[in-house]
């Protein structure tokens, strides 16, 4: 019995190992909480700054989202504050939607080629090239846009060459690799026997691709497109370099325009913290943040509706 | 057909603790995965310096039972009841689970050497406990590898990656690794299931020799192995211990019909 | 041949054309970068400082800044990402807390980098009063880098067989010791690949830096490595325009006559660096794995 008690005592003593475990658990948890705090910090900071345009400077939502004249600190001819963000919002949405519309068929076509038609060549050439292109910095895209796309647009359509069209071109090439590689992933996730079953029923290769494979991969492809759009919407420098940076309502695709990001990058350095000019810029950043959250939500929604049931 | 909830359908041998040294014993053990009861009715005494085999069809609860004995189920399941190790209930929150696992070592189904040298695999746990004396470590490495009967094959390559070993050798190094922290109970969860017949035979021989110093409990799906190797056998079915007796008796004169069906291969 | 077969042939031909066109675009892109850029790259170009008004400037200081910022950002983000991924992969239970945190990380990873940059500007440059500086830039890049690095390391950890964890726990080691000394080393090839891939992304990032690390590259005294002196290359409080920011800056408001030459050269260097990061991520990961399983 005495021996038992001695053993029990030994077994109940908290070992060094137990202390290690506690320490490690807390350490890793605190790293995670730090990231959580950063995310909350970003949202709170930017929301606070962005909302002060409305609460501190008493700009109405209607003037901000509906106004078309952007020159914070001055007044429009009709006497309102010139904080109309509509031109930038329209610009951002236009380049994003146009780039997605142009990219999607190219991306899906390429992805189908890589997985269904010529997987070998796809894996050997296209895969590494897309991977490299996903990683090319956006300033490089912007620089090529500036030295190739803008002159091309100028020669073909006249004008300065800067504008929505050039922005669309640059973003198209930029988000193409992103959409391609994610679409490839979702096509690869379609089980092999779907294809075999379809072909065995006498469907042609094209019918199999169109009616079976693409249909099954639709949620994945939609996610890829949303990701591409999110990237396009949030892209700052590449667009800023080719769009012309005129905070005007775009009346055609080749006139200088601007996006939320381009006005932000160009303007933030030239305003004084706390001034209306500065607050209005933070409101643009808030719109950007909210849109990013919206894209996130969209991805979740698609994911939940279309998760592959295996 | 199966009516094992009826206690008369169960035969569990009980030692007289006055005459026999019981190293481990379970009482009223119940294991839950979430809310599902996965294992119950297994009051087993394990005699010192013997090999006890746990047999039964897959899903019978034998592995769950084994993993409860050194509290490896802590994160995955809720274990109720008593687990006595030398008379001390180790299934209570106050107990230091790491010390329990040091004393009750475990070897797993698939050989799982760490991405370290053979030497490093064996000395790792000791070093974590603050033993850095090269002479002591060298001694432990040689002693445990000899105990696991793999010294001659690896002694010239002690600093080679353990990941490069064959399955049989790797499993022996894993046994040596478990012995290095000086346990007195060794739990083995189907240790030969990934090995070829020759390695299996060698492993069994090793375990027979280790019996002199350790109490060994081994889960096996191989009935011949249980019959060859063990002194006592527990037959599990549907999450309960059905029969526990001397191995010879379990295999030749089982007291329960279900056991008879299982060991004679008429099961199901 | 019947109608559906003909239709199938035509459709597949169109797909081939699309893929071919995309290959052409991509090939043009890469070709353009290297063909117009590489002839401008020389040792002198890589090492001499930039010039604001005259031709013949290099990218020496910018290149140094990019590398220095990358190293700092990685040094800060690696322990945090490692800790977070360990928690997520090894400790986290499947509950609302975990899914909230996962969502938060996803949100962070999809935030436009300009938003991250503006947050860094607000917090580090203004609030903490670090000004446009290396340290502001490195901390902002850390935020930019954390979600992807965490995800990469988590994937590498998830790839380690559970047998390894069981082995450590079975020896009476704590979960934490098992993770640090067994699981992390076993995941090392994947972790290293992940770090290198993230490095490529950080190296090319500009939008997060223009309002944090700043847009100027003051001359550095490469003879003075005392980080407390403001013109020392290591000084964390000096502004530091990086290579990527430099490309943006000179194209937006540069006035030197050889602007295109400088930017195309810088772009080529940038893409070459990314290419090297991509290739070495695979190569080094594989080498480490071989080393771990090899005879010696």
Automatic annotation (TrEMBL), chain A:
Keyword vocabulary terms for this entry: Cell membrane, Membrane, Phosphate transport, Transmembrane, Transmembrane helix, Transport
Biological function: Part of the binding-protein-dependent transport system for phosphate; probably responsible for the translocation of the substrate across the membrane.
InterPro entries registered for this protein in UniProt: MetI-like, MetI-like_sf, Phosphate_PstC, Phosphate_Transport_Permease
Subcellular localization(s) per the UniProt record: Cell membrane
Ranges where the ABC transmembrane type-1 domain occurs: 89-299
Pfam families: BPD_transp_1
Membrane-related topology note: Multi-pass membrane protein
Gene: pstD
Family matches, as NCBIfam families: phosphate_pstC
Transmembrane stretches, start-end: 23-47, 85-108, 129-150, 162-184, 212-233, 280-302
Protein name: Phosphate transport system permease protein
Principal location listed in the UniProt entry: membrane
Protein family according to the UniProt entry: Belongs to the binding-protein-dependent transport system permease family. CysTW subfamily.
UniProtKB/TrEMBL annotation, chain B:
Claim: RNA-binding is one of the keywords in the record: no
SMART domains given in the database record: AAA
Keywords: ATP-binding, Cell membrane, Membrane, Nucleotide-binding, Phosphate transport, Translocase, Transport
GO MF assignments: ATP binding
ABC transporter domain segment(s): 24-263
One Pfam family from the record: ABC_tran
InterPro entries from the UniProt entry: AAA+_ATPase (IPR003593), ABC_transporter-like_ATP-bd (IPR003439), ABC_transporter-like_CS (IPR017871), P-loop_NTPase (IPR027417), PstB-like (IPR005670)
Protein name as annotated: Phosphate import ATP-binding protein PstB 1
Native species: Lentilactobacillus fungorum
Gene: pstB1_2
From TrEMBL, chain C:
Classification via Pfam families: BPD_transp_1
TM regions (residue ranges): 12-35, 67-88, 100-124, 130-149, 179-203, 266-284
The keyword Membrane appears for this protein: yes
Lipid bilayer topology: Multi-pass membrane protein
CDD domains documented for this protein: TM_PBP2 (cd06261)
Gene3D superfamilies, A to Z: MetI-like
Domain ABC transmembrane type-1: 63-281
Main location: membrane
Locations listed in the record: Cell membrane
Similarity-based family: Belongs to the binding-protein-dependent transport system permease family. CysTW subfamily.
Protein name: Phosphate transport system permease protein PstA
Organism of derivation: Lentilactobacillus fungorum
């Amino acid at each position: 019995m005495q021996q038992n008690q001695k053993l029990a005592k030994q077994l109940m003593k908290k070992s060094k190992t137990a202390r290690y475990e506690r320490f490690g658990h807390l350490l890793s948890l605190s790293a995670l909480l730090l990231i959580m705090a950063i995310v909350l910090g970003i949202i709170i900071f930017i929301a606070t700054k962005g909302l002060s345009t409305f609460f501190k400077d008493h700009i109405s939502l209607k003037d901000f989202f509906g106004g078309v004249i952007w020159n914070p600190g001055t007044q429009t001819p009709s006497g309102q504050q010139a904080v109309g963000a509509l031109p930038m919002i329209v610009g951002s949405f236009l380049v994003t939607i146009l780039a997605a519309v142009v990219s999607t068929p190219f991306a899906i076509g390429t992805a189908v080629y890589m997985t269904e038609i010529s997987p070998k060549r796809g894996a050997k050439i296209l895969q590494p090239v897309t991977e490299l292109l996903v990683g090319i910095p956006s300033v490089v895209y912007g620089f090529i846009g500036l030295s190739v796309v803008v002159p091309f647009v100028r020669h073909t359509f006249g004008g300065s060459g800067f504008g929505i069209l050039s922005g669309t071109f640059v973003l198209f090439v930029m988000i193409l690799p992103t959409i391609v590689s994610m679409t490839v992933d979702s096509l690869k996730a379609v089980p092999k026997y779907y294809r075999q079953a379809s072909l065995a029923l006498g469907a042609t290769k094209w019918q199999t691709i169109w009616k079976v494979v693409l249909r099954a991969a639709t949620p994945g492809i939609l996610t890829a497109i949303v990701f591409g759009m999110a990237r396009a919407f949030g892209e700052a420098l590449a667009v800023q370099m080719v769009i012309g940076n005129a905070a005007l309502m775009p009346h055609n695709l080749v006139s200088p325009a601007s996006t939320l990001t381009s006005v932000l990058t160009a303007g933030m350095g030239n305003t004084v913290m706390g001034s209306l000019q500065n607050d209005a810029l933070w409101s643009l950043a808030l719109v950007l943040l909210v849109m990013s959250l919206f894209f996130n939500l969209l991805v979740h929604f698609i994911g939940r509706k279309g998760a592959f049931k295996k | 057909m199966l009516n094992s909830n009826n206690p008369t359908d169960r035969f569990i041998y009980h030692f007289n603790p006055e005459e026999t040294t019981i190293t481990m014993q379970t009482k009223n053990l119940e294991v839950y995965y979430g809310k599902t009861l996965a294992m119950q009715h297994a009051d087993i005494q394990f005699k010192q310096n013997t090999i006890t085999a746990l047999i039964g069809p897959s899903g019978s609860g034998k592995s769950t039972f084994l993993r409860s004995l050194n509290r490896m189920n802590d994160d995955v399941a809720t274990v109720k009841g008593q687990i006595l190790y030398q008379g001390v209930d180790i299934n209570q929150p106050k107990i230091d689970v790491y010390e329990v696992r040091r004393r009750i070592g475990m070897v797993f189904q698939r050989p799982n050497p760490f991405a370290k040298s053979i030497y490093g695999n064996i000395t790792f746990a000791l070093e974590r406990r603050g033993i850095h004396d090269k002479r002591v470590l060298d001694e432990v490495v040689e002693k445990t590898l000899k105990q696991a009967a793999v010294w001659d094959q690896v002694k010239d390559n002690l600093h080679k990656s353990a990941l490069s070993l064959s399955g049989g050798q790797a499993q022996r190094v894993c046994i040596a690794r478990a012995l290095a922290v000086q346990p007195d109970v060794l739990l083995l969860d189907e240790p030969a299931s990934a090995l070829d017949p020759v390695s299996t035979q060698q492993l069994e021989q090793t375990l027979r020799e280790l019996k002199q110093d350790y109490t060994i409990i081994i889960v096996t799906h191989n009935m011949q192995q249980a019959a060859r190797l063990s002194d006592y056998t527990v037959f599990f079915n549907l999450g309960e211990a059905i029969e526990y007796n001397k191995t010879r008796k379990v295999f030749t004169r089982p007291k329960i019909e279900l056991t008879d069906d299982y060991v004679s291969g008429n099961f199901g | 041949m019947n109608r559906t077969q003909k239709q199938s042939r035509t459709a597949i031909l169109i797909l081939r054309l699309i893929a071919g066109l995309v290959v052409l675009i991509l090939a043009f892109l890469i070709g353009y970068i290297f063909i117009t850029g590489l002839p401008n790259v020389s040792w002198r170009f890589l090492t001499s400082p930039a010039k604001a008004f005259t031709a013949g400037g290099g990218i020496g200081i910018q290149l140094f800044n990019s590398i220095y910022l990358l190293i700092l950002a990685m040094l800060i983000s690696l322990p945090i990402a490692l800790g977070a991924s360990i928690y997520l992969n090894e400790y986290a239970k499947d509950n609302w807390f975990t899914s909230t945190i996962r969502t938060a990380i996803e949100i962070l990873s999809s935030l436009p980098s300009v938003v991250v940059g503006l947050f860094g500007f607000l917090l580090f440059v203004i609030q903490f009063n670090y000004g446009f500086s290396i340290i502001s830039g490195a901390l902002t890049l850390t935020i930019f880098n954390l979600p992807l690095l965490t995800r990469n390391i988590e994937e590498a950890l998830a790839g380690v067989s559970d047998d390894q964890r069981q082995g450590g726990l079975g020896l009476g080691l704590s979960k934490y010791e098992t993770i640090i000394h067994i699981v992390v080393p076993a995941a090392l090839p994947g972790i290293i690949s992940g770090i290198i891939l993230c490095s490529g992304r950080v190296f090319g990032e500009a939008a997060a830096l223009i309002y944090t690390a700043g847009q100027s590259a003051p001359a550095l005294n490469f003879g003075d490595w005392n980080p407390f002196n403001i013109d020392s290359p290591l000084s964390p409080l000096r502004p530091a325009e990086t290579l990527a920011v430099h490309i943006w800056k000179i194209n937006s408001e540069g006035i030197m006559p050889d602007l295109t030459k400088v930017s195309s050269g810088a772009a080529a260097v940038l893409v070459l660096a990314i290419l090297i990061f991509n290739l070495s991520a695979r190569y080094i990961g594989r080498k480490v794995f071989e080393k771990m399983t090899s005879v010696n």
